[in-house]
Specification:
Two copies of one chain form a homodimer.
Chain A (H helix, E strand, L loop, with lengths): L5 H10 L2 H21 L6 E6 L4 E9 L4 E13 L20 E12 L6 E12 L7 E13 L6 H15 L6 H12 L1 E2 L4 E2 L4 E7 L4 H26 L6 H20 L2 H8 L4 H4 L10
Antiparallel strand pairs in A: 1-2, 2-3, 3-4, 4-5, 5-6, 6-9, 7-8
Helix pairs in contact in A: 1-5, 2-5, 3-5
Chain lengths: 293, 293
């Protein structure tokens, strides 16, 4: 994807949040197109859903295929009168929760048929505080996102290395400390406390980014989006044809159960969704197509 | 099961909590025996686990068979120096959380192979506050428990009626208001908030019962235990041979996913377990053998 200079996007953003929404929707379409090239039996089906507690809504795209046992890409853009819930990501910002907000994002999870192919999770989100529900003028804004990799019992060191190399490449232009910090964030965030171990092999995670230079923050955020497909497609091209047997499948389904545990017990996006009265089908579209305990 | 007069058990309890533990273990063995009579291919396997944060531990009995795709019966009896977690059932009692405690209980969940056969959940629990970890003398105690029924997409009115009739029979000797109250508790507790509906068709639920008459409370608690098998066995005898097809199975696996959501997002027992540093395998042994999102 071609870049836009930070100063240009900055001025655009100041006048029009449609630029952020357009970027997210285009990225969503690009990802869907690339995933469909790998899929031998199926296409993404799109469902539009309205936001119950305010204006806006979302588009949930789900593929149930052969290569992708399930892949879900959810775009949303919602206006609300009050930032939801104490345990949510958004609530970390803003002491006054009675603040009108606009939130938009893309969230993606894959569950591959082949046990040797890992699950990937990707998210970009953008939250604005508004001066009032009526005018919808932005008064402050934050960026968040990242991507992380979860092998379902079969971790290949070269896959992990590639994935992190691309993440580093995405972030290094914004300072040498950025990638290590965001990698550490991911290791801490994607941790299954009751099992006392990380969910997968990590990745990058950032939240509530507002450096004061919105052009820089937006460029960083877009760089993460622009690099996502490079992080995962080479891995999928290698792994979707690996030999596997019933024992591998059993291990995969058990690991998927741990993934489901993380999403339901710890994930802030899920909690944010439940607390903000979101559509449960959209919030839980990331859950595994089949899991075993 | 033959009854013991309230005055007898009361005096026994005052001197020896082993009576409660014995009742629970005998009940566990009786249930396992009756379930194994229905099972055509498998036996319960027992795993003993130590409590990491104190004395005691538990015994997890799991059957993975043909009739019972998975049935788990967990007995535990643990001594700790501090009642765990703010969101837990136990924490509701006792303003001073730095209180040594003894907790024992039996918890059971079934996941049937036949989609027409419902999941049943049963639990009895007993918590004592102790004067000190060393002496382990009881200073106060509470009873809790209940049973509830969750059809996996196929609810038969006659099953629901039977189940509640047995629950009523178990509780009516203790006052006409008891069954309606405990039924209401269950309807409120077994509620999947993010889906805005009850988990199943209800049952009975009680927690922190301490009426001042420990003989009466213990007799009520035992009556729930003594009636459990009557509530579910006639239903299983009817349903485990019902005709079913792949669509029924699909519906069953989706409903099991909702069950998994309840356990991980809302269940206080699960939270209590995580917060008290319990064995994740024991805490999550109730999770479905297979679930689909």
């Amino acid at each position: 994807m071609p870049g836009v200079s930070p100063s240009t996007v900055s001025s655009l953003l100041k006048t029009n949040r449609d630029q952020v929404v357009s970027y997210l929707k285009n990225l969503r379409d690009t990802i869907i197109g690339e995933f469909e090239k790998l899929e031998v039996n199926g296409r993404f089906a799109r469902t539009i859903w309205p936001y119950q507690n305010g204006d806006g809504g979302g588009e949930m795209s789900v593929l149930r295929g052969q290569t992708f046992e399930k892949a879900a890409v959810n775009w949303s853009g919602v206006y609300g009168s009050r930032l939801p819930g104490a345990s949510s990501a958004a609530a970390n910002k803003g002491s006054n929760q009675d603040t009108p907000f606009f939130a938009t994002g893309v969230s993606l999870i894959t569950h591959m048929r082949n046990p040797k192919a890992p699950t990937v999770h990707f998210n970009l989100r953008y939250i604005e505080r508004l001066d009032s529900p009526a005018s919808k003028e932005r008064t402050e804004s934050w960026f968040g996102g990242g991507f992380d990799l979860t092998p379902m019992g079969f971790a290949y060191p070269e896959d992990t290395e590639h994935f992190h190399a691309v993440a580093k490449k995405a972030l290094d232009p914004f300072g040498v400390d950025v990638y290590p910090t965001y990698r550490k964030n991911a290791a801490e965030y994607y941790f299954i406390k009751h099992r006392n171990r990380e969910r997968g092999v990590g990745g990058i995670f950032f939240d509530n980014v507002n450096s004061g230079d919105i052009g820089r923050d937006l460029a960083l955020w877009r760089s993460v989006g622009d690099h996502f497909l490079d992080s995962i497609l080479p891995i999928y091209r290698r792994r979707i044809h690996e030999a596997h047997d019933e024992d591998d499948r059993r291990i995969q389904l058990e690991r998927r159960a741990h993934y489901a545990e993380f999403n339901l017990v710890y994930d802030r996006g899920t909690r944010f969704g439940f607390e903000s009265g979101g559509n449960p089908e959209a919030i839980l579209c990331s859950m595994p197509p089949l899991a075993s305990w």
